[in-house]
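User: Before I run my own analysis I want an independent prediction to cross-check against. Here's the chain; please return only the structure tokens and, at the end, one sentence I can use as a sanity check.
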Amino acid sequence: MTERSERSADPAEPLDRADHVGSADSATEVFVAHRNLLFTVAYEMLGSAADAEDVLQETWLRWVGVDLGTVREERAYLVRIVTRQALDRLRALARRKESYVGPWLPEPLLTAPDVAEDVELAESVSMAMLLVLETLQPTERAVFVLREVFDLDYDEIAEAVGKTPNAVRQIAYRARARVAARRPRGIASSAETQAALQAFQRAVETGELQSLLDVLAPDVVALSDGGGIKHALPRPVVGIDNVARLLAVGWWKRDAERSVELVQINGGPGLLVRVDGEIDGVVAVRMENGYVTGAYHVRNPEKLSRVERETAVTR
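Assistant: Structure tokens:
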């Protein structure tokens, strides 16, 4: 045995600088390879890209301290770390939302067109589904996301959430039932959603409302999120008549130069609204049986940083 190998074999001795650098490089390579997946897990659990990025930073700090030689499956290990960090953050977010000004909506993402090709992934990151996930308890949400979206087995999920596999099965059953009762009935095609948003676009740009009213469901709900920074609806507006009146008096500024662009938001068609050349908000919709049952308008400027460049989401 050489002098170097004798020295490295003693765990009490520090690694050579070259060994330490090599280990750090390996950790970085593995983390980067799984980064988009980890971001997607955290984002689906939190509904906030900013908080998901903070969770990724915390995950990285823990990952670089791990002895990679003890890790059997790197993807599962990283998902476990990110899930635990996201659960801690999710509980803190619940307290923050209690004092949030007006309705809270998820932070929208500009996504690549190919995300829509994975129907399950696109639905899981949609604004409508993220709002459904808000109705779950933190552990329920984690279990649902890891099982239904990322297809982790119950043993892996149990390690991530600190429960037994049998408990995780029960939690998964309850979460599926709660989501099924609230998720949109009948997945709308991209063409249906795009047509509905084009009707919104015409309403914003020209004031012509009839084509929009034709695609609104009788019980449509309109929500807008200004976060107390931008003017927004203080509470949900429910019903086609009330939403029609809202649109008639001007959901958007009428005395400013507006432009509306059809883009991919959270895996499906959405609208990017600019006022006087500056990004003013994002509109996404929930479609059921060919009609708009939910209209979501995010104006909080703190939630709009991810609509200027694409964010990669993956499974």
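Sanity check: Residues 1-18 have pLDDT under 50 and may be disordered.
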